[in-house]
Specification:
The chain is built from five helices and no strands. Helix 4 runs antiparallel to helix 5. Helices cover 71% and strands 0% of the residues. It is globular and about 40 Å long.
Length: 89
């Protein structure tokens, strides 16, 4: 359903909404614990760059969620640039 809604959003020109829906579709197969882990790791100043990259790798390799993994990697780089990770290790 989410992927169908993403196609409709794309066709209507709502590309960002479509991407959000595709990422949401990737998350539907994950446990609540995994979702909470993602949430906690994405909280600024409460995680490390390394933890974010490790999360992205898990999303890619274990959960087959490449769009979400890409978002986490992008966030990790931005957090690092803005100095909002706990540390860089």
């Amino acid at each position: 359903t989410l992927n169908h809604q993403a196609r409709v959003a794309d066709e209507a020109g709502y590309t960002q909404l479509a991407e959000n829906l595709r990422r949401a579709a990737e998350l539907t197969h994950m446990s609540n614990e995994d979702i909470l882990d993602i949430y906690n790791i994405l909280r600024p100043r409460r995680t490390s760059y390394t933890a974010m990259i490790e999360l992205a790798d898990r999303l890619d390799n274990e959960h087959k969620a490449p769009l979400t993994a890409s978002l986490v990697r992008e966030a990790a780089e931005i957090y690092l640039q803005r100095g909002i990770v706990k540390n860089t290790t």
